[in-house]
User: Fold this.
Amino acid sequence: MKKTLRTVVTAAMFAAANLSALPANADEGFEALDLRNNVEREVYSEFYGAYGMPPTENVTTTAADFEQTFTTMTTTVRPQPVYGPPPTTSEQLDTTTSTSQQIETTTTTSQELEELFTTTTAEPVPQPAYGPPIVLCFGDVNVDGDVDSFDVLAVRKMLLNNEIDYRKLRYEPYYGDMNGDGKLGISDLILIQKLVLGKVTQRELQNEFGISYNMNVEIEGIAQPPADPDDPNVAKPIDEYDPGKDIVVTLYGIRPTDDITKDMLDPNGQEK
Amino acid sequence: MLNVDMKRSHLEQMREYRKRLMVKPQLRNLFLELTLRCNERCMHCGSHCGEVFSEELTVEQYRTFLQQVKEDMGTGGKMLDITGGEPLLRKEFFDIMGAAHELGFSWGMTSNATLIDDSVAKDLKKVGIGTISVSIDGLEQTHDEFRRTPGGYKKAMEGIESLLRCGGLEHVQVTTVVTHKNIGELDELFRIFNDMDIDSWRVINMEPMGRAKEHPELILTPDDYRTMFEFIRNKRMQGEPVSYGCSHYLGMEYEREVRDWYYLCTAGLYTASICANGDIIACLDIERRPEFIQGNVLRDRFSEVWNNKFSIFRRDLSDDNEVCSKCDQKDFCHGDAYHSWDFDNNRPQVCFKDILF
Assistant:
């Protein structure tokens, strides 16, 4: 069967409709948490953002839960050098050592909150003191645990609409500051797109721009130029739909050709 | 799914446009039923065609009629839709269409294509055929059983190939009537048609009219309908030239998604038909009842009939039925298609409410 301009436009119309539906899905992907008691609210308001992703389902928190939740275990596996003796560090004194590799484990359990968030890592890496490593959140603007097209849409949304209440949508613009300049702008959008498309890795971006963690990132809105009414690529307002120009194919009928449409209309677009 | 707000807005505009059409109709499709005779005996035939007596207009009567239409209404923006029966059974077929072509009418036809070979295809081209729609109602065995014509599928496919080979047509379409029996063959049919150089594939459901009423087992079930519309929509999303026909309001889910326009029953608004005997009616698929005959071309001037009669078709059928008049979709469906309205009981025989919406 022949594909024509009409069929291509039809397919594009469906594709555009599906694409425009994505931001709505992105919004719906993260519902507001139902925090049921003061302890949860206090913990959430104080540590959300610093500790990465909030819980995805509601729980009734008990002291035992706290202990379990804030028990942090960090395990580092270090490969042995091919030549020479294995490296000796101070942490090794408290670790379990096997013949093939060296494992360092530090476990912290809580009695009080200060102790809960004390984590010992085996090597100094530029990570936040608490919570998951920032590398996991790099680009995860909608904080759903993945860096994907929804994050691209979230950034686009923030850039295009200055009025947007991104806090309400649980967007975290500082995870979108890919180049670490303290601003969320079009360059960050491009970098996130590259990341989603697999053209760069998180590690490459971090090597290039370093790791930033600026809670007060500034959003650089994009001013949209006024639509050119003569541009055929600009979607026309829905009021401009003209039923009279629809070609209705009757049950028995044969599809009138597009030339028939021209016949029906004079040069001024008026029906004859 | 396309934007529902947009669709609702368009449908509201269509409603207003339809009101204007009722006051000032615009003839776009003029159907000519050249004969009631047919060389097939399809189970779904809406007009009981076959080996029947057919009172037919002569070539000169057609010429006179078309001349009058041209003088009174012009030929621009109008399409002659030639149908039957099988129109090619008329031995004067090429004389009639030659006359229409000389007068400047665009025309297309519906055919089972069993009588088309290279020679006929060339003759059709000479008399100015623009478009053709050929019926293929299933895979070979299904098609032949359904149309009760052994070898019909093979002949029809050869006819289509002749049309494509000779060229000159602006649009070659295949139409498939979907039934409960052949709905499982849609994928395979698509594969076959997709390998052909046709322009489009029209997929329509079997309507409960004419001879089809004798075969209720072939009418689609609610699940069948949903399957068919999903099939069409999916193909269109892939950019394939597959379309549903003009029948029936489909609700917000499928309106505009399975065809290029919003629902509008064009009977009496865009469409008029001349029966084989010259009777003037709105749509050939509407039940043939005396009260629907608006005139006859042998004694009436068509333009006067079109302008001054047809009031029975220029109104909302939903006003005649209590359920329809209270339906929240009546502003868009208006009681649905005229051809599927049960005029004895004043109710629609096909309504997709609670099936599609």
